[in-house]
Amino acid sequence: MNKKILIIATIILALDQISKIIASIYLKLNTSLKVIPHFFYLTLCHNYGAAWGIFKDYKVLIIIGTLLAIILIYHFIFCFKTNKRNNLAFGLLIGGLAGNLIDRLIYGYVRDFLDFYLFKYDYPVFNIADIAIVIGIILLIYAVFKGEDVNEDNSSRKNKRKTRQVSSK
Fold first, then answer.
1. What is the DSSP string of the chain?
2. Which of 16, 103, 115, 130 is flagged as catalytic?
3. Given pLDDT bands bounded at 50, 70 and 90, which one contains residue 168?
4. Of 104, 86, 90, whose CA–CA distance to 47 is shortest?
């Protein structure tokens, strides 16, 4: 794995876990602390499921799914073009997934605490890991649209080129 991706993932993991520890110490469970009225609150919640609390009765399945996602992402690191944006995307994804995975393994739930109201909609409470995952996915989608999802150095790509050259002779 690229050293830069590992550094980014480690920073995200540390920020996520430290912020969750601070939230767990200073916030009371399921009680909101108003930061910006009608917009931003700190609300400690325990999420036993995945995004928006779905699959809350399938903890083992979520853990297995997260591990498989990390393995799949690791594979894609070698398929995508190596550049700063893609390194950031993969680092954010791995760090975010690892942060929430650690919570699930240790506590059986994910500690969420960032609570926003947008246009009178109470958005589901989330954490630093969730932010990293979303930004990482957006960056990878952008990379796909830019054609950076195929690494020119990828050996399978070279083999395909060689096969085409041989068959055209």
1. --HHHHHHHHHHHHHHHHHHHHHHHHS-BT-EEEEETTTEEEEEEEE-SSGGGTTTT-HHHHHHHHHHHHHHHHHHHHHS--SHHHHHHHHHHHHHHHHHHHHHHHHSSEEEEEEEEETTEEPPPB-HHHHHHHHHHHHHHHHHHTTTTS-TT-HHHHHHHHHHHHHH-
2. 130
3. low
4. 104
Q: Report how far Cα 30 is from the mean position of its chain's Cα atoms.
A: 24
Tokens of 106: 């240790």
For the cut 60, the answer to whether the pLDDT of residue 87 exceeds it is yes
**Active-site choice (112, 115, 149, 153):** 112
Residue 51's alpha-carbon distances to 9, 125, 152, in angstroms, are 20, 10, 35
The values of phi and psi at residue 37, to 5°, are -50, 135
**Sorting pLDDT into bands at 50, 70 and 90, what band is 53?**
low
Q: Specify the residue for token string 């931003």.
A: 40
CA distance 158 to 160: 5
Q: What is the pTM of this model?
A: 0.84
Catalytic residue status for 149: no
pLDDT in tens, 125-161: 999 999 999 999 999 999 999 888 777 665 444 444 4
